């Protein structure tokens, strides 16, 4: 079964004749592209500690003015994919972006979807599709495919956020491009206010706005309160987790990547099932040990640290604190896997 013919088994002139016609024999590569039972994964379990990354990001602020960078970002690249390919996983790109007081990252739109998870600093904002979204620690702000977005900063201290984009996938599809635009006219109001109270929602016959993304900002205060409420009301609930959704449709907030917030109860150890999509973990509050099956070490995720795990691996999360909850932001490739019909839980 496993002894398929090799390329070297074939006469060199035959292989040359094939190549001249842009033809390739399948059998020497069949096992590589369809390995038995478990996919080959280039994605390596990788940890990006914030404490070591932050000084280098601030240094980028000194070295490169925003006008020369447009977006001042250090990319969290997975060595398994080759650093220059700027992938955290097959479909996920991660970047830590710095904006200094008074700086402006000009308006553009692009085909990849993005979200920002705010890591630290106050006073910055992103204007998305004309809506001004203030940035505070732990907030999640969407910039879905095709929507204009630009970043500004009226505060006094550096602001840092984590960008999560489906850029590697969209680039692979040869569908990645951007368009530069003018400074946006800010419209009144904020989408998230209409959806602040779960259980009451805008009556669609009156409010239909043709917006595919009615909610662009998910304030951390609300997400955190939901997690604490769930944990208090359902003491037996193992996995205290919420999914960031489009409140109008209940679907995932974006089309390709999925976003979640998880609370680890004091002292809790949580085993996540092995699933086909790769996953990213980012500590919003508290510290957690992240053990990825097959990886030979356990990462201690300190506040603002980020790590990733390849698909099809068991991940165990352990809250390092015995008396405080820990809050983890997660991003994964589940919506993509589900849409393609390859989603699996092992
Ligand atoms: O802030 O618009 O990390 O366009 C990469 C590409 C951030 C952004 C990134 C981008 C942005």
In total, how many domains does the architecture comprise? Answer: 2
Bound molecules: 2,5-dihydroxybenzoic acid
- At the fourth level of CATH, the homologous superfamily of the largest domain is Jelly Rolls
Overall shape: globular
Order of helices and strands: HHEHHEEEEEEEEEHEHHEHEEEEEEEEEH
Q: Specify the structural class.
A: alpha+beta
- The CATH topology assignment of the largest domain is Jelly Rolls
Task: Explain this structure.
The chain has two domains: 1-34, no CATH class; 35-192 and 202-340, Sandwich (Jelly Rolls). The strands form four sheets. A six-stranded antiparallel β-sheet has the order 1-19-16-21-14-13. Strand 17 (288-292) and strand 18 form a beta hairpin. It has helices at 12-20, 30-33, 50-63, 66-69, 167-172, 191-194, 204-207, 220-233, 334-340, and strands at residues 46-48, 73-75, 93-99, 104-110, 114-120, 124-128, 131-134, 140-143, 149-153, 159-165, 178-180, 217-218, 240-243, 258-264, 269-272, 279-285, 288-292, 298-301, 306-309, 315-319, 326-332. The protein is α+β, with helices and mostly antiparallel strands. Bound molecules: 2,5-dihydroxybenzoic acid (GTQ). The site of 2,5-dihydroxybenzoic acid has 9 residues, from strand 3 and strand 10.
């Amino acid at each position: 079964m496993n002894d398929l013919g090799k390329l070297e088994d074939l006469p060199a002139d035959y292989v040359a004749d094939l190549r001249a016609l842009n033809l390739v024999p399948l059998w020497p590569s069949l096992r590589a592209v369809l390995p038995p039972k478990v996919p080959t994964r280039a994605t390596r379990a990788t940890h990006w500690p914030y404490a070591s990354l932050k000084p280098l990001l601030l240094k980028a602020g000194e070295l490169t003015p925003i006008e020369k960078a447009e977006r001042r970002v250090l990319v969290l690249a997975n060595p398994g994919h080759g650093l220059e390919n700027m992938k955290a996983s097959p479909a996920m790109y991660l970047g830590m972006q710095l904006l200094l007081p008074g700086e402006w990252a000009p308006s553009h739109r692009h085909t990849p979807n993005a979200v920002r998870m705010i890591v630290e600093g106050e006073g910055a904002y992103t204007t998305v599709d004309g809506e001004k979204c203030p940035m505070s620690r732990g907030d999640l702000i969407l910039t879905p495919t095709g929507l204009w977005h630009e970043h500004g900063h009226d505060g006094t201290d550096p602001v840092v956020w984590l960008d999560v984009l489906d850029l590697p996938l969209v680039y692979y599809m040869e569908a990645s491009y951007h368009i530069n635009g003018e400074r946006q006219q800010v419209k009144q109001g904020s989408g998230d206010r209409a959806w602040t109270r779960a259980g009451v929602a805008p009556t669609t016959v009156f409010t239909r706005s043709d917006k595919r993304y009615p909610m662009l900002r998910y304030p951390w205060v609300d997400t955190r309160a939901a997690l604490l409420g769930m944990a208090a009301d359902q003491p037996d609930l193992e996995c205290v987790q919420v999914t960031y959704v489009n409140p109008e449709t209940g679907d995932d907030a974006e089309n390709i990547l999925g976003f979640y917030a998880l609370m680890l109860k004091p002292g809790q150890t949580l085993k996540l099932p092995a699933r086909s999509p790769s996953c990213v973990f980012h500590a919003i509050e508290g510290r957690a040990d992240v053990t990825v099956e097959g990886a030979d070490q356990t990462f201690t995720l300190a506040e603002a640290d980020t790590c990733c795990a390849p698909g099809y691996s068991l991940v165990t999360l352990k809250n390092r604190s015995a008396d405080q909850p820990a809050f983890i932001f997660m991003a994964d490739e589940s919506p993509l896997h589900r849409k393609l019909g390859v989603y699996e839980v092992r």
